[in-house]
Fold:
Amino acid sequence: MQCPVPVHRTDRVLLAHGGGGRLTQELIERLFLPAFANPALAARHDGAVFEAQGGPLAFTTDAFVVDPLVFPGGTIGDLAVNGTVNDLAMCGARPVALSAAFILEEGLPMETLERVVGSMRDAALRAGVPVATGDTKVVDRGKADGMFITTSGVGVVEYPVSPAMVRPGDRILVSGPLGAHGVAILSVREGIEFETAIASDTAPLWDAVRGLCESGAEVHCLRDLTRGGLASALNEIAAAAGVGMEIGEAAIPVEAPVRAACELLGLDPLYVANEGRFAAFVSGASADRALEALRAAGCEEATIAGEVVESPAGTVILRSRIGGRRVVDMLSGEQLPRIC
Amino acid sequence: MQCPVPVHRTDRVLLAHGGGGRLTQELIERLFLPAFANPALAARHDGAVFEAQGGPLAFTTDAFVVDPLVFPGGTIGDLAVNGTVNDLAMCGARPVALSAAFILEEGLPMETLERVVGSMRDAALRAGVPVATGDTKVVDRGKADGMFITTSGVGVVEYPVSPAMVRPGDRILVSGPLGAHGVAILSVREGIEFETAIASDTAPLWDAVRGLCESGAEVHCLRDLTRGGLASALNEIAAAAGVGMEIGEAAIPVEAPVRAACELLGLDPLYVANEGRFAAFVSGASADRALEALRAAGCEEATIAGEVVESPAGTVILRSRIGGRRVVDMLSGEQLPRIC
Structure:
């Protein structure tokens, strides 16, 4: 006869939670299945099986190592879900399914894991996409930092866009004020309090992308402004497309408290990570329509921040408020480690 | 004019390699793009875009935290590629695209990263699947353990199988000798040398699955025998399908050196992790044909190890060599942490 083994519920993550045995099963049944309830996950297969029709597929992955795990405006969990939804959106793809792989440090409070998983559930519901498959590993104490999460996503491409489609004459739209995510993280990490609380901008971007693309604007490329910020994103695309770019300092939205915090911390908002902002490259003729569509789709503070030029290829130029021009280079060192 | 910033090649991973700036780009261009050369990756988009037609999709993810990073028969890199290929294969799915997300510890020798990436390239070539998208993060020294890799995979389901299809009368095939992976890892970790070197069994399983399914055998379910080994896999499926199982000790292949090592180390081969072995559930009538097909597809030492019974539901029984019967329970604690 099978002798039931007593299950010791614990308030901390144990190595055995990652061992593939009884405690792993308990974690799945007690935490993950209820949080992410969906048919693919409930099948308890080795992976999720689903139909995805209507266009080519987009497939993306991101590891999240943000420190701290919980910060003003979000957690590592919603950051991971939104980040992957946004990478799909930047491919013009409607998100269809996400995966989540957890690397947990032995001793992590179970309460922290539950809070993070709860915020993933909320973010997935908000974005309308199931967390369809997952994995959990546990490493011994001191061999990780609380938890790391890697999310991957599959989507169906509804609007084909690509860095290769960017051409001189395109306008560069920025979807909203820059820098809040990076400043929010840094303020917690460094224990700095600002007069105005600054919350991360983490948010899903698919609805804004759909609104933009449905407007009839001729959209060539989309890029979220994460690690390395607007400056790195523009440099990457300028290099990939073999074009130059010019942006106007006055047209780049940065909220006053973020600007003040950046000045205090010695940061350039152009390089600070955002987790709910993107740049869109649209034809010059459809720039106004695109701006209107973005604003109607929830990006009320979107701007036309600059334009694509022929030369110098691979270079991004900033026109300053006082009329100067300077090269905005790719981020060279590490500005803010573990920002996402 | 743009002033070229000197790029300092280093022999260690720096925080800035994960910062999204110049060093991240250099890592991508110098290491990842050449290793995984494929059109999706070369597009430098936020994700991979590809066509996948012919059936429903399978989607899977796994985090790899194996210690040590390099061991007899493999590295964390081929383990990750094979593991994800195999999770797809266990869904009856032909692998179409993989993703790889790296979490690196600051100070990791660049040589180690290169070796691991090289073994991923080789494993991906062997399995015939591109690593189509990826991500790299770096955490400060002491906040990870060298490197962790999370791979995800997308496949097209060619042979629909599922735990729910398992029924009484099915035969349980085991694709080859058990326990080599776990013993190989443990022997390095504990500094034990055996008379016969034991190498990990890490290998891709899609060709074996295809051979089995093409044979005309009626295949109901497939499961790889990773963390928790054969015992945990059978328990999971018995619980999911609401059936019992009986396996014969004499019919479960374990090579003599592995058996001896397990005895020495106090391990039960039924619970030891494998990274290139699976169980197949096939109808009783097609068991012989299935065995023949498996053997023809490279699993020369496959056996019919047992059968599915009606009751007691959710329970796995082992018939020992000397005629006794005992319950093989799910792994209860943690036998071998960080085995994959």
Chain A touches chain B through 95 residues (CB under 8 Å). Chain A has two domains: 48-157, 163-327. The radius of gyration of chain A is 21 Å. The first strand of chain A starts at residue 48 and ends at 50.
